[in-house]
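Changelog note: in this version the structure field was regenerated for every chain. One regenerated record is shown below for reference.
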Amino acid sequence: MHRMLEEQQRVQTVSVFVLSERLSRTRTPRDMSDELSERAQKAQKIIANPVGFKVCEGCESIVLEKAVTCPNCHGYRFDGTAERVVEQARILGSRAATSLSPKDFE
């Protein structure tokens, strides 16, 4: 039990560090514009084919339909309705990323 708590604290510490590093990086307006443009393009691809995706009910990430667990939060409950996928793609495609992904830990 003690070992599990230590591991959770370590993960939380790493998460906070990675998030603070990510947020403290100097990003130019062009970088932010490029990021938003890329997210909007990805959202359009998802909107064009919503049946290939589903929305994680844990963290609201959009994942491939074939995913068994969410790669971001490891959740296993999803909403695969086309309406929900399109709605979430529009939301995520219109703003900058606010969550950490597995790539941020590399």
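Spot check on this record: Helices lie at 2-24, 29-48, 82-93. Residues 4 and 31 are 39 Å apart (CA to CA).
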